[in-house]
Amino acid sequence: MSKTLPKIAWIGLGIMGSPMSENLIKAGYDVTGHTLEQAKLDRLAAAGGTAAPSIAEAVRDADVVITMVPASPQVEAIAYGPDGILENVRPGTLLIDMSSITPGTSIELAAAAKEKGIRVLDAPVSGGEAGAVEAVLSIMVGGEQADFDEARPLFEALGRTIVLCGPHGSGQTVKAANQLIVAVNIQACAEAVVFLEKSGVDLAAALDVLNGGLAGSTVLTRKKDNFLNRDFAPGFRIDLHHKDMGIVTEAARSVGAALPVGAVVAQLVASLRAQGDGGLDHSALLRSVERLSGAQV
């Protein structure tokens, strides 16, 4: 079976990249990976993948290169330069960047790659660690229809909702909107939790009934236990959401869109990070509301 499937190089094996690459292995793909942490390389090898000591070695024989790193600077670091992806892949290779970065970075990468005969899709995802593990991610894609059609079987091994949103950079624009909605939603839930608790209501019961009505959301479903248990082990770190709120704020300014509530939540995320909570899950916005409401956390 693996004879006919494209050979995959996977760069970046973090909270999202590790389970995603493993889902491709389970789907029968030959995956060679590179990342900076040895433990993550060992995990890939244990799952049936091949660990590579460098980007150049990982991508040399690949038909498709998939990248999943934290932000624009890391994408630029792995893509460009003598040791980067563009200098070491074969012409005709499909490069799929699944990181969440600025739309401008994606557009620049696609242009630079095109000069070398390399096709690019930006394909950021939503669904967090749980969505990555369960292969139910929402994947928003920017690029050419033909490249999207070719990549679709890969995306189907990783996610459930897979949509081509427009030309290069469009996936990142939709992802930025996603992060705006998620942050505002978490903030609203956090405010409700503090209000409910201070009112002496049974929080678990209240969140159950709220989630069954118009106030219900995927955010509340996924994060309810985080709120109830004050469990902020990172599925998606505040540090990364801080980065994403910067992306959406900057992108909105550049197109002339006002984000008044988004701007306030962006500052609350920044404040949480400044208080040392950057490594916690974004549901830890609850801590910020608790502090504002007089609690010592």
Automatic annotation (TrEMBL):
| Keyword S-adenosyl-L-methionine appears in the UniProt entry | no
The family classification in the record reads: Belongs to the HIBADH-related family.
One of the GO BP terms on file: glyoxylate metabolic process
Q: Where is the 3-hydroxyisobutyrate dehydrogenase-like NAD-binding domain?
A: 169-287
Location of the active site: 175
Q: What is its EC number?
A: 1.1.1.60
Full protein name: 2-hydroxy-3-oxopropionate reductase
Q: Which GO terms describe its molecular function?
A: 2-hydroxy-3-oxopropionate reductase activity; NAD binding; NADP binding
Classification lineage? Bacteria, Bacillati, Actinomycetota, Actinomycetes, Kitasatosporales
User: Which residues are in the 6-phosphogluconate dehydrogenase NADP-binding domain?
Assistant: 7-166
Q: Quick check: keyword Signal in the entry? A: no
Ranges annotated as spanning the membrane: none
Q: Which SUPFAM superfamilies match?
A: 6-phosphogluconate dehydrogenase C-terminal domain-like (SSF48179), NAD(P)-binding Rossmann-fold domains (SSF51735)
Swiss-Prot/TrEMBL keywords: NAD, Oxidoreductase
EC main class here is oxidoreductase
